[in-house]
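Replying to the earlier thread about multi-chain prediction with a worked example.

Input:
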Amino acid sequence: MAETRQTDARSRRIGLILFAACAAVAIPALIVLFSLAGKSSSPWFGQYDAETHPAFDFSLTDQNGNPLRLQDLRGQVVLLSFGFTRCPNICPTTLGNLAAVYRKLPPAAQERTKVVFVSVDERDSPEALKEYVPFFNERFLGLTGSPAEIGTTARAYGAFFRKAAAVGSDKDDYLIDHSTYTHLIDPDGNLRVLYRFEQLPETDKIAEDVQRVLDMQAPGKQP
Amino acid sequence: MAILPTRKNPARHGRDAWTTARFLCGLLFPLLLSSGPGFAGDLKIEDAWIRAVPPSSRATAAFMTFVNKGDKPVLITGGTTPIAGEVKPMITVKEGNGVMGMAFVESFSIPAKGKRVLEPGGDHLMLMKLTEVPKAGSTVPLVLTTGSGEKKVSLKVPVR
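Result:
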């Protein structure tokens, strides 16, 4: 009995020592790994482009029927995505997330940020966009144009779209497959950061990126 | 004795409290489950919600988590709701280069002892031909059809 107890105590002690040894090695190793990972990764959450590539200066029509060019938005960060108003899942997710990003910005940054939704659907009139885009935020812009204008704009941003599944028996009630990237265009009109659809729920980090771009443009802080 | 530990036997105090906690959990947990939405046989449906969409919308999506506690897969083939003409399972198809599209499927299969999550940007139940556009804060009745239609699961789904 006494012997067993002693053996038990010893094996427990050995276990403890082994555990402590493992912890002593593993914990600092993990800390080093994490700090290295932190150092090597960029401060940007999205895919940042350090080179300057001017964003295509589209010329489209907004939800109020007014012409709008990208250059009209100089001085503001533009968050641009493509979609269509009958989109039941992807577009509301994108715009809902961008609305959350916008809400997280301080008022001064909101004044210098524009969320722009470009419809790739020829069925979307300015009126259709007016019923759709402000639902997510009154200050968001919905843009449409002729099929040629939309095609040119989409191509220039590397965005793809095509008619897809019909929703019912009505052949005009179809969905559209489309690119789901969101482009962050800096206040000088350059493509600066790119977000994948899956990144959009991280609205805090995107808001930080927006703020960082705005700060870079502050007087005396040219990138 | 188990519920009210006495001071006479402080050594047993901890164990008694633990027993009581376990007893209460055992009592409460099934109650919680049974009062939650959508619990039919082996299929449990959690965190169901319908997306609030702009007033002009013709369609919206319902999201939820299916948990199948049974030994056989369960199929969700669609459903009915007073606010839409059709309710159909739809999957999101991701192509390369950020292109996404959607496709109708016959059913969602929830594996035996497994689960399946419908979430924004992914798979969903599409509510089409909306007769009423759901408003945030409201609750919408939704009846899901399982398998070949023999079983129905009734839900009250919040809109947000």
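Helices of chain B lie at 10-35.

Feel free to reuse this layout for your own posts.
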